[in-house]
Specification:
This protein has 433 residues and is mainly alpha-helical. It has 3 domains: 98 residues, no CATH class; 108 residues, no CATH class; 172 residues, Intergrase catalytic core (hpI Integrase, Chain A, Orthogonal Bundle), CATH 1.10.443. The strands form 2 sheets. It has a 3-stranded antiparallel beta sheet with strand order 1-2-3, covered by helices on one side. It has a 3-stranded antiparallel beta sheet with strand order 4-5-6.
Amino acid sequence: MSIRIKYAYLHGQVWMFRRNYPADVALVLGSKALKRSLKTSDPKVAKARSLEVNAIYEEQVSKARSGINVMTATAQSGSPAEGLGAGWDGITKQTVARLRASLEASGTTGFTGTKRTSAKVGDLAKTYLRKRAQELRPGGYKSVRYSVGLFASKFAGVPVSQLGRDEGRFFLDTIPDLSRVIGKSEATRRMGFDRLIEFSRRRNDGITVRTQKRIWSQVKHFLDWAVYEGEIDQNPFRTVRFERKVRPAPYAVPTDAEVARLLAAEDKELHHALLFCLLTGMRSGEAVGLLRDDLVRKGNLGWFALVRPNAVRELKTDASARQVPLHPVLQDLLPLLPAQGELFPELNVNLVTKQFTKLRDRLELSRPGLVFHSTRKWFITQCERTGVPEHFTASLVGHKSARSENQLTYGIYSAGISDEQQRSIIDQIRLPA
């Protein structure tokens, strides 16, 4: 049964309030209706907030009409304002303007959370990015900042209420021309959108469809936030569809020969982290975010790494939380790593990615799809080749189990594989000679 709230309606996932003003009050206030976002999807909260907004509505109408009565009684001169109707004889347009200004100055026509229809895209983007910077991890925020920053650099001076389908189609049709070096090249640091497009068209190395879709999705999310904040009634780009097909570009699985060459290089910055990811299947962020306190010893089973949220990093998903036995090679490596704090204090995901690219290029391993994340695929492949069941491997690398069609039921009833089983799996993996 749908919930009904007087003067409120559900717009997407957010409750909105709208109540029309009487004609005489609407003329004074300069608006046909009081419209506000209630900033919640919870009907109980929305009902309570709608009562508060309705009280504001009644106060506005009362004060506006009090002002009208005073004007009607005291008007002495001037031509009547056009189209005011009965009861407005002798009241000038200037008098109406003064009354409206007086009401606004007294706070009658506004309240905390007032719809700011004149807010510019650039100003809203700054507020939005400050908010997202507090919510997202650095890698995720960097992507949002890039996407929303591109959009704001083109439409910074445009009131968000004036955005429409034409602006959306223009932006969506133009982003495929962007070069993939934007954001990486110092030459593009302070360029606006138009200059970036001009720069990109000279290079002819456009971004992938996947990146285009991510940019478009994050811009639409920004505008959804503007709706939630009451800046606009609805997302102006909601009907502009992204129709390009995203073709999967899977990471390559390194061959044993490639792994041997990567390890033989003994890159001074990357070698230890590379070993960790090859022999545990960890993501780069999980490995470089390890603390010494995340390593625990379990008797004769040896050392285990606890992949869990800590002061350095969060996890990608709930399934990512797990424990992984340390391979004998890694246990021998422990004396060379810090005895406290971060195991890899000089590394972060960005540095790992860049350093691996340099190492790969130096070794002339230019096969498409061969990136640092490929180490995770190598680990999974080794587990598969030694006959490890898929759901066992899933528990080690932090994937949801695929053992049964009903994954939820399996997750409820299974306690997972034992420490001994995990240890036997890890000990079977052999680095290439």
